[in-house]
């Protein structure tokens, strides 16, 4: 069986957020042309069966475990709430009350509990019997604890909205790719300025 490369591997995202990264970007709305080929958007988890496969591939489903319509709906709600929250630039997030409320509400179906490993390391894991997608939220909390959640951003290009991890030292990037999204935006701004000038 051909196993496709995970997004977090392709884009070299730190391991502590790969699940969160793959989950929020399972909806790909990017529209661009690369080497003459148009990139069409997609949704990796658009049906309960595809979500099941996605979770199984990441060890989030026990043997014989299934995803029903209710689980699927909750997962899509959680993804949308996460994307809506991350759509706000980091500096605006403290004021993004509505997005914060939605995310809080969507997370209710994914309860977490403390787990202490043999060597004393602690982490938040899904409560037994609950949806293992809660691990996505565990990673988000971990990221916030490390002070790195502000590095997880939505690309400022309307034709993209890819969620990227800003590894730049000053953490001031606006675009997932300066060569594609940054250039497109700069060219557009330049044209607007030219039109105004003439
Ligand atoms: Zn982009």
From TrEMBL:
PANTHER family (UniProt xref): BLL6575 PROTEIN
Annotated Zinc finger CGNR domain residues: 151-194
Alphabetical list of SUPFAM superfamilies matching this protein: Jann2411-like
Organism: Reyranella soli
InterPro entries, alphabetized: ABATE, ABATE_dom_sf, Znf_CGNR
Protein name, per record: Zinc finger CGNR domain-containing protein
Superkingdom to which the source organism belongs: Bacteria
């Amino acid at each position: 069986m051909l196993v496709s490369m995970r997004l977090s591997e392709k884009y070299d995202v730190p391991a502590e957020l790969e699940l969160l990264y793959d989950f929020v970007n399972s909806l790909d709305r990017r529209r661009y042309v690369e080497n003459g080929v148009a990139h069409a958007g997609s949704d990796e988890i658009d049906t309960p069966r595809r979500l099941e496969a996605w979770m199984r591939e990441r060890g989030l489903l026990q043997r014989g475990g299934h995803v029903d319509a209710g689980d699927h709906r909750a997962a899509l709600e959680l993804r949308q709430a996460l994307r809506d929250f991350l759509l706000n630039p980091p500096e605006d997030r403290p004021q993004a009350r509505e997005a914060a409320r939605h995310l809080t509400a969507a997370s209710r179906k994914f309860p977490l509990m403390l787990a202490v490993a043999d060597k004393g390391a602690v982490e938040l894991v899904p409560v037994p019997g609950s949806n293992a997608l809660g691990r996505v939220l565990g990673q988000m909390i971990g990221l916030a604890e490390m002070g790195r959640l502000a590095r997880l951003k939505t690309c400022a290009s309307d034709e993209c909205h890819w969620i990227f991890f800003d590894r730049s030292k000053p953490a001031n990037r606006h675009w997932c790719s300066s060569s594609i999204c940054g250039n497109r935006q700069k060219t557009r701004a330049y044209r607007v300025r030219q039109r105004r000038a003439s």
